[in-house]
Amino acid sequence: MQLRVLTLNIWGVHYLAKLIDQRIQALVQHLLNTDVIYDIIGLQEVWSKTDYLYIRDQIKNIYPHSYYFLSGLFGSGCCIFSRHPIIGVYEHLYTLNGFPHKIQHGDYFAGKLIGLCKILINDFVVNVYNTHLHANYHHVIPQDIYLGHRICQAYELIQFIESTSSAETTNLTILLGDLNLTSTDLGFQLIRGVLQLHDSFLDRINKDIFDPSVGNNGMTCDLPDNPYVIPHEHQGDGERIDYILFRARHDNVKCLEAYPTLHKVPNNATGLYYSDHLAMYALFEIDRNASEKAIKPLEDVEIADEQTREILHSACIIVEETIQRIQRQRLYCAFAVFILVFILFSINGNSLTNSYLYTTFTIIKNLLCIIGIAVCVWFICLGKPVERNALSSIQNAMRIRLRAAHFTY
Q1: Average pLDDT of 303-313?
Q2: Global pTM?
Q3: What's the chain's Rg over C-alpha atoms?
Q4: Residue 172 three-state SS
C-alpha cells in the first residue's frame, strides 16, 4: 500500500500577503489535477475560514474528508484534507505563543496549536499531526526573544504526540507542517530525538527523484528566487523548516520519495508563485504483511541515546535563561513604574496661571503616564508571571524525563 502526503504553508494573510486569491486558485487547480492525487494534505496559514471553505468545496469530489482547527482570534490556520475517512480529531493550543504587545508579529492572536486527525486507510490507522510553531523573526539566537517559546512548543508537541499515539491503536504517526525550525535547531533535534521520528527527506530511498523546477537541496523557505520573500542578511540559499516526519508502529513503512515542490505556478504569464514557502511531498510504502514488533511498556521507555539527553539538557538551560530574563524584565517594569509615577506627579504647574498649550501638554503627559503605569503593572502582576509559570511547567516536565530532582516553582 502506498501513501502520498503533501504539506504547504500557503501564506494566507489577507491584506498583507500578495495575490492570495490567485495563489489559492492555482493551488486548487493543482489539487484537482487527477495526474497528481494525494492521500493526505496538510495546509498552514489558512487564516480565513472563507478560504478554507472555498478550498474544501472545490476539491471535495477528490478529497471528501477535511477538518479545520479553530483557535485564537483568527483560527489556527491549520487544516487537513484527506481521501480517506477522518475518524477522530483532537487539538492542543500551545501554552506559550508570543507576546500580546508584539502586534506586528501576530502569533499571540493566531492561536498556534498542534492538531490531530486520526485517518482510517483500509483498517490502517494513521495519526496525522499538523502544526505551525512560532515564527523566527530574528534568525540569530542572541536576538531571538521567542527561542524559549519555540523550545516549549516543541516539547508540548512531543507530549501531545506521546499522549495520543498509543502503540496499540496507531499504525503510523505522521507529523507535518511548518515547524519554523531548521534541521540543526535544538527544537527540531529535540522532537526527532525524543519521539524517534524519521525525516522523510533525509531518509528517503530514491534520492535522485526531485522536482526539477526546485532542486534537490530540501530548502522550503526564504528562497532567493521567490519574489514574496523579504531578503535578509542571514538568508543564504534558503531554509528547510517545512517537514513530513514519520514513525511506524512495526517499522513497516518506508519513504520512497520526498522533496520540496510547488514553487512557481506553471504556464502562468504573470509569474505567479504558490506561496512564500515550498510544499513538501512524500511517498510512503506500507508493508501490511510485516511481522509485529513487541511494544515496550510505558514504564520502560527511556531517552533513546546520550545525544538526545544532552539536547534535552540544553533545552532546559535555554528555558531557564528565558525565566531569568522574565525576572529581569519585571524589575525593569517596576523601575519604569517608579519613574512614571514621579513624572505623573511632577511638572504639572498651576492650571490657573499656565497657558492653554501648557495645560494640554500636562493632560497628555499625565494620560501617557497612566497608560504606561497600567501596562507595566499588567506585565509585573499578570503577563510575566503567567509566562514564567508556563516556562517552569515545561522545564519541570523536561527534568522529569531527565530524572532530575530539581524543579522550578
Answers
A1: 83
A2: 0.90
A3: 24
A4: strand
Local structure of 201: helix, strand or coil: coil
Grid coordinates of 222: 526564504
DSSP, res 383? I
Residue 321 DSSP label: H
Give the DSSP letter string of 251-319.
S-EEEEEEEEE--BPTT-TT--BS-SB-EEEEEEEE-TTPPP-PPPPGGG---S-HHHHHHHHHHHHHH
Choose among 148, 157, 63: nearest CA to 115. 157
* Selection from 368, 390, 273 nearest residue 323 by Cα: 390
Residue (of 141, 248, 150, 240) closest to 191 by Cα position: 150
Indicate if the pLDDT at residue 292 is higher than 80.
no
Task: Indicate which residue of 30, 132, 277, 406 is catalytic.
Answer: 277
> How far is it, in rounded angstroms, from Cα 278 to Cα 296?
38
Q: What are phi and psi of 115, to 5 degrees?
A: -110, 145
Number of residues that make up the chain = 409
Q: Which three cell numbers stand for residue 272?
A: 505567479
List of residues 6+ apart from 374 with CB closer than 8 A: none
Per DSSP, 39 falls in state S
> Which of 80, 319, 299, 98 is closest to 187 using CA atoms?
319
Q: What is the DSSP string of 347-377?
A: S---TTTS-HHHHHHHHHHHHHHHHHHHHHH
Q: State the distance between the two ends of the chain, measured CA to CA, in whole angstroms.
A: 50
Q: Is 132 a catalytic residue?
A: no
Contacts of 80 (CB under 8 A, 6+ apart): 40, 41, 42, 43, 66, 67, 86, 115, 117, 128, 130
Q: Please check the confidence at residue 232 and state whether its pLDDT lies above 80.
A: no
Q: What angle do CA 245, 249, 253 make, to 5 degrees?
A: 60
